[in-house]
Amino acid sequence: MVNGHLAIDLVELMAATPWGSVASVDVDGVDEAEFVQRWAAASGNYVLMVHADRVELLRGIPPDPLEALAPERRPGHRLWVYTNFNCNLACDYCCVESSPRADPRAFGVAEFRDLVAEAAACGVRELFLTGGEPFMLVDLDERIRVGVAAMPTTVLTNAMLWRGERLRLLERLPRDGLTLQISVDSPDPGLHDLHRGSGSFERALAGIEVALALGFRVRIAATLGDDVGDGEARLRSWFDRLGLAEDCLVVRRVARQGAANSGLVMSRSSLLPEICVTADGLWWHPVAAIDPAMRVSASWRPLAERIGEVSREYRGYRLAGEIAASSFPCA
Fold first, then answer.
1. Which of 68, 107, 255, 286 sees the fewest Cβ atoms within 10 Å?
2. Helix (H, G, I), strand (E, B) or coil at 241
3. Where are the alpha helices (DSSP H) in the chain?
4. The whole model's pTM is what?
5. How far lies 108's CA from each of 170, 206, 290, in Å?
6. SS3 state at 257
7. What is the b/e burial string over 214-227, where b = at least 16 CB atoms within 10 angstroms of the residue's CB?
């Protein structure tokens, strides 16, 4: 039952609260919390957060933080899918602890078809397939064809497995609508191999040459640690010599996730979401797809509702005055 004085208390509280400022009203139970929410909607104020014993209100209706983002940065523009978690490498900073010994936890083809169909229906514009190493899957081409048929698709790869049957798989892939994003962390083979394994630099370069010779659009992605020194400038100079377009280089720092014991610290309140789906559920961002604190739901279904949940949570952080969200460019 609602306290008869609650409406009067709300009027007096908000009258004394400057526009754009936050006030808090105590509530006793669900009925009073729901009354405050209805009152706020009717009076032109905004509910920031509902707690067990109080409701936080913002005086006035704020601009929508989502509208302040460029369309391509809003939740639901991009969809990431971990096709698998096993990898031919065991990078010492891998955000999801992939290695040859990792449980593959592959995302099945049938479920992938369902996911892409729902993604297209709810307005997703770009699809990214990552791992692990996606080319560990001998049926990866089935997933890629499904993706490319629906929207522009990027596959993240270390480009080191294109021999024999996997080379023939690569040759069969469509060129239109597909980008291969290849990992090269430094133009210095020693620094690259230090984190990715001996010989991985030369094999990555050979993979780049194969992909370009076959007519694929190639993007280079570098993950830089504390030992990079002037490596970013040298990396950009090396990239320029490849003759690729300027938007085909992605540079990001190591995140303190998975196997990394140092790097950028991530949280849902501090990170712009890029919705990510794995065999284990739906996550806030692909850089944190094994971090329990970053899992949004155990299931991605229905995708439109999950995107809505992430959007509302992001909006709540921004309106509550949390620190400005940062982007982490996986692609």
1. 68
2. helix
3. 6-15, 30-43, 65-68, 109-121, 140-150, 164-172, 189-196, 200-213, 231-242, 303-319
4. 0.84
5. 20, 30, 18
6. coil
7. eebbbbbbbbbbee
Q: Which of 131-145, 155-169, 265-279, 306-320 has the lowest mean pLDDT?
A: 306-320
CATH fold, domain 67-319, is TIM Barrel (3.20.20)
301, 304, 308, 314 alpha-carbon torsion, rounded to 10°: 80
d(CA 157, CA 8): 61
For residue 82, CA distances in Å to 28, 209, 233, 319 come to 44, 25, 31, 31
- In the chain, the amino acid numbered 140 is L
DSSP state of 116: H
Residue 203 corresponds to which amino acid? R
What residue ranges do the domains of the chain occupy? Answer: 6-58, 67-319
Query: What backbone phi and psi angles, to 5 degrees, belong to 191?
Result: -70, -45
Residue labelled with tokens 């309106």: 319
Residue found under tokens 């729901």? 34
Helix (H/G/I), strand (E/B), else coil: 217: strand
Question: Six-digit token pair at 177?
Answer: 């609508």
SS3 state at 110: helix
Q: Which of 204, 201, 202 is nearest to 212 (CA)?
A: 204
Q: With bands split at pLDDT 50, 70 and 90, how would you rate the model's confidence at 30?
A: confident
Q: Which residue has the tokens 């995140």?
A: 255
